[in-house]
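Action item from last week, closing it out:
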Amino acid sequence: MTDPRSRWSMIAVFALLGAVTQVLWVTYAPVTDAAGRYYHVGDGAIGWLANVFPLLYVLLAIPAGIVLDRWFRGGLAAGAVLVAAGALIRLGGDGYAVALAGQLVVAVAQPLVLNAITAVAGRYLAERDRPTGIAIGSASTFAGLIIGFGLGTVFTDDLPTLLLVQAALAVVAALAVMAVLRTPAEHKVETPPAGLGALRVAWSDPFIRWLCALVFVPFGVFVTLSTYAQPLLEPAGVSEETAGLILIANVVAGVVGCAVVPIWANRRGRELPVLTTSLLVTTVACVTLALAPGVVTGFVALTLIGFGLLPALPIVLELTERRAGSSESTAAGLMWLTGNLGGLVVAAVVGVLVDDPTPAFLLLAVLSLLTLPLLRLFSRVSTSEPVPPRTP
């Protein structure tokens, strides 16, 4: 039987929706002061407009995965509608409660969108094209961060216009996804176990459990550096504006890495060596920042970390898609759950050390180094129950 053709239109509109969710997540980060004045609240309250996203993801990752496994088209459509609805709610006035309500709605939608990365590739792409589809879906989430910070820079002193532009993007993305979802998927569509069966199936696989353990630190390091790079580099004379440029370079390098590295690794069966290299590069980069922080080392180290560390996400998701079968969205939810937990835990620990950069950077280096033994143990699981690379 001939394998149906890949439907790249679905990948394109899904990538747009994934990017928009991230745009909405970081809406207020680049305009914290202006948003505080607009809503008449302090920086801490504005911070919670972003913090609700990882918190709700931890709570909703598994339920969202189960929904997508059982009712994929309905679950993804609900996510798209909620993204648009949350963006529109934020236009309802200049009160902080309205902004928080909109962010909460988008935060509920986010797991329904991001957990679907592997399922979209599995349902709408031929097997040979799925690594590329997963890489595009993953890269779009990081590209959304760049767009979000860029829009914040353009509309720094005009928050209503910023919210209006973002709402328009969200509505366009939602309508596009709804239109493409009208045509059923032509590729693998397996019926998962009912209820919590999908979670039991996914978690019973030692391969999936080891992947969950592996994503904890890379996610945690990236989230922590995104959160605290500026105050950690400030004692070395790195200004807030320069730190912002360094973070943009970090994410841009990550987007490029996501577009190139996972596809190369898949076609050569080199996923584990690539993950090992990314952890070693992260370790060396963090040690460098601990011993010789500054503008140049900041740019070089964080760019290398972005290029090496962010592609770990599509690599892990692609391995998950090949392994999890009918429970792929639930398994992807487990990856996002442990990744977000890693972000919350590592960022919280480093937050205590934020006024003492040297031990903070050394801690991130040690955590990265300690993850390498997990890769060795994981290689035994993957060897005993192989997941072969796809034929190009």
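Closing note: DSSP finds 17 helices and no strands in the chain.
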